[in-house]
Amino acid sequence: MNHKQEEILKLKEEKNAIILAHNYQTQEIQEIADFLGDSLELCIKASQIEDADLVVFCGVDFMAETAAILNPSKKILIPDPQAECPMAHMLPAEDVIKYKKRYPQAAVVLYVNTLAEAKAEADILCTSANAAQVVESLDEDQILFGPDMNLASFVQKRTDKEIIPIPEVGYCYVHKMFNTGDVTFSRENYPDAEVLVHPECDAEVQEAADQILSTGGMLRHVAASSNKSFLIGTEVDMVTRLRRENPDKLIYPLLDEAICETMKRHTLDKVKNSLMEEKFQVKVPEDIADKARSAVERMLEVS
Ligand code: 13P
Ligand code: SF4
């Protein structure tokens, strides 16, 4: 631990705070987190917070909002309020309402990568770890699914239900960077490596890979596998966590440039400031939070 990290740990104790962080955070933030996980694990953890007075959330806007939705009486802080997920902003609530009018018989399944107002319009949420399971749990045969078109096509291949992507083209710019050439080229260099990609990658990249997994799924797979080397097709700091926790294995990024810029807005200085000044508080209006909470809780029951 460096000096700044030690200061944060001390402050955290004084303030009775906990730090939740997504797997894409930098190593120095991963090291000070009380809990590190994928979106589903972070939702579950956020639903179980009991004795902390403050929660500092090192992730993007929709993740911190979900924690606020699940904990209306707690102070949820985000160290940099500009840590936004561009994909979550591709499906505003008005658009969900428009699609619901066009397909009144369809169920609405939204990825947690949506803003609170859109979540409030969903029947149920999903993450990359449980999307197919959530869709299969529903009675409806027609599903409005958004905003990630690649996760929608991943689910379509695993269900007989009709999946209608909303919007037609919603995507993550980080996972869009991967192409099949990266898989072919990397396999030539590391012929023994197993290729793991995230379901936000394009369908052709998913087809070229060996496994399609959420970030939490990648962690479990690498720990349990007898393989020694892996190529990781998701945000580069996932490699950081995998390497730290699997020192006996060889873990390589499929693409060094796959960096989620907004995840990296959180720094140790900003985390310290967030704890000292108790800012920036994430607030979700009560009526929106109540509606969105039902959709999150319905997902947690299925998972
Ligand atoms: P995971 O839930 O797999 O961690 O994915 C979150 C995310 O934002 C992927 O880009
Ligand atoms: Fe959003 Fe993509 Fe960053 Fe995940 S990696 S938070 S989907 S921009």
Automatic annotation (TrEMBL):
Name listed for the protein in its UniProt record: Quinolinate synthase
Entry GO CC: cytoplasm
Xref: InterPro entries: NadA, NadA_sf, Quinolinate_synth_type2
One GO molecular-function entry: quinolinate synthetase A activity
Binding site for [4Fe-4S] cluster: C85, C172, C260
Annotated EC: 2.5.1.72
Catalytic activity: iminosuccinate + dihydroxyacetone phosphate = quinolinate + phosphate + 2 H2O + H(+)
Any Pfam family the entry gives: NadA
One GO biological process term: 'de novo' NAD+ biosynthetic process from L-aspartate
Role noted for this protein: Catalyzes the condensation of iminoaspartate with dihydroxyacetone phosphate to form quinolinate.
Primary localisation category: cytoplasm
Pathway: Cofactor biosynthesis; NAD(+) biosynthesis; quinolinate from iminoaspartate: step 1/1
The record's free-text note on cofactor binding: Binds 1 [4Fe-4S] cluster per subunit.
Enzyme class: transferase
Cofactor: [4Fe-4S] cluster
UniProt similarity note: Belongs to the quinolinate synthase family. Type 2 subfamily.
Keywords, alphabetical: 4Fe-4S, Cytoplasm, Iron, Iron-sulfur, Metal-binding, Pyridine nucleotide biosynthesis, Transferase
Signal sequence, start to end: none
Keyword Translocase attached: no
Binding-site positions, iminosuccinate: H22, S39, Y111, V112, N113, S128, H198, P199, E200, T215
Gene: nadA
Subcellular location: Cytoplasm
